[in-house]
Amino acid sequence: MSSPVAESAAVDQESCAHCGKSLTSGDRALFVEEERGRTFCTEDCIGEYFSPEVERLEAEYHAQLSASDLQADEREELAHLRWSTLREPDEVWREKTLSGDYRYTLIAEFQPADRPVWCVCLSLFLRGEPSFMFLSIITRNAALVDRYRRGERMSWIKRSTEDKVSAAHPRPTAEQLALDGTVIPADQLEVLSSEAPTDGLADGWTTDEAVRAALGAGRRADDIPNEEFGSYQSCMEETLEAPDEVWSLVAEQSVAPSTGEDTSVRMFHFIRHYESGEVPFWYLIVAKELPDEDHLEVLEAFPTRDIELVERYRQGSQEIGGDGSSEPVTRVLH
């Protein structure tokens, strides 16, 4: 195990969350998150406390692993990408667990040998930095990566200067970061935090920003390029008026603390398939329900030839399509 992320002198009556050892004033208390304030007496206790969750997440990952994905030796060769992902992710998602702490998912895309590869790290955060890593995976499977986009999309402010990595603060070895259920080295986080006071985790994204970011991250390089979208403009009205499918789902489940009213956001996905021309394609529209429930606001509209991307928008309840018994969506669109 590496050094703990944070430690302090224990206050009276504190005890280790794993073994129950009393931590009296002056004892070293270790911690890896702030939401629940759990303290530990050793790094071994941290690892043992979270080991059931580490095993559950590993089993969940292996159950979803495709035979066509990277093999074990290939993943090992790319183990160093975990460090880059923890240092500067492309995406950060935050999800509150039943135990009361926040689980953060960091995702970064890389292009070794001209083929996209993603690294996904699941971690606790402390003081705006990764602290305890439950799971890290390397994959070529975009659909698998999408399954880890859970909860609230967060902003991550990129660093503007070079990393200050020196002999005093070396990068972790691939062997260190290959171990899931690991406390992230504190000295490495000090290197990161010394860059600039604004680096790291920022505010949560709005629903609109999250939708647009997820779309951009999910499009294949050989799909219809953005500069050609204008040629498909006529498909937008047709898709709104006569979609083959409409799916609806709640994107954000929340309650206003002052009134107790439901402030959830309902999204609608309109899909129409076009078979004319040399290459069939789909037209997709993403819209959200406005507060008066009689109007929809279009967030994104785009064509695609990628059936896997279309599948990602078949979520929630199907309002149109399937057996054809559903009523059409009758709302004013903006």
Task: Describe the structure in your own words.
The protein has 334 residues and is α+β, with helices and mostly antiparallel strands. It folds into 2 domains: 49-204, no CATH class; 225-333, no CATH class. It contains 9 helices and 17 strands. The chain has helices at 43-64, 72-77, 81-87, 142-147, 174-177, 186-193, 207-218, 234-241, 307-312; strands at residues 6-9, 14-15, 22-23, 28-31, 91-96, 102-110, 117-126, 129-139, 152-157, 182-183, 200-204, 245-252, 265-274, 281-289, 295-304, 317-320, 332-333. The strands form 4 sheets. A 7-stranded antiparallel β-sheet has the order 10-8-7-6-5-9-11. Mean pLDDT is 75; it is low at 159-170, 174-179, 185-199 and 253-258.
Set down the secondary structure blueprint:
Elements: E1 6-9, E2 14-15, E3 22-23, E4 28-31, H1 43-64, H2 72-77, H3 81-87, E5 91-96, E6 102-110, E7 117-126, E8 129-139, H4 142-147, E9 152-157, H5 174-177, E10 182-183, H6 186-193, E11 200-204, H7 207-218, H8 234-241, E12 245-252, E13 265-274, E14 281-289, E15 295-304, H9 307-312, E16 317-320, E17 332-333
Parallel strand pairs: 15-17
Antiparallel strand pairs: 1-4, 2-3, 5-6, 5-9, 6-7, 7-8, 8-10, 9-11, 12-13, 12-16, 13-14, 14-15
Summed up:
By secondary structure, this protein is an alpha+beta fold. The chain is built from nine helices and 17 strands.
